[in-house]
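Let us walk through a complete example step by step. Step one is to write down the protein sequence. Step two is to encode the small molecule, zinc ion, as a SMILES string so that its atoms and bonds are unambiguous. Step three, shown after the inputs, is the structure prediction itself.
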Amino acid sequence: MLIAALLGLAGLLGGSFANVVAHRGPVLWGFANRPERATGRYDLAWPGSHCPSCGHGLGPAELVPVLSYLALRGRCSACGARIAPRYLLLEALGGLAGLSAGLLFPVPFAFFVLALLLLLMTAAAVDSETGYLPDALTGPALWLGLLVSATGVGLDPGAAIFGAALGYVALRGVEEAYRALRGREGLGRGDAKLLAAGGAWLGPGSLPFIVLLAAFSALVVIGAQAARGRSVEGGTEVRFGPYLAGAIAALLLARPLVPPSVAALLGAP
Ligand SMILES: [Zn+2]
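Step three: the predicted structure of the complex.
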């Protein structure tokens, strides 16, 4: 219980850092621009956290995850500009991720699970905001899965390697087939790399379930948007990364909760 609470706390801080990466990463990786970059040093640590509207530097009390957002009612204390709900969402999700990793998994596997969940939610935030899934996030998620399996606390290493390769090849195949048939991009290459990470963590047997769960949740969300009057056509871009990331996280966390026979069906070793 103490471990779960500590991991929950680590998750809150990790979620707060995930916000920094999601905001600044796209600029540092070269697929977005922001005016404040032109004014000098710009990286994950500098300049200090500030309001993007007025430049007000955040004090220690304003950096406390979740509580500061709620206390300020989602507005900058200096200029009153709205703070994007994503900040609250990633911090809260990070805390929840740490808590559930600590409750569901033994140490040290729980630490690795929290690291993976933080990478997945950062990747989902970046993809939904920019349409890119950067290697800087999918790469570590994949390598971490392979390394964890090599330490003997996760999957059998053979299953992890086979799952990673099959996950990548399967979505690359879909991507190439779509391009050949329709003459334009359907899936991004980052999606294949993200599914490779899912295969490294969950094994080859889980790949169809990851893809099905992701596709099903994407359909539910698109259906809900269409019901609210947003037009949806064949050419409407769907950013698949957040759904894939969510499906990988959900299946990983579900594994200790379901009976062993169901877990085996989901591809557990
Ligand atoms: Zn402000």
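Step four is interpretation. DSSP finds ten helices and no strands in the chain.
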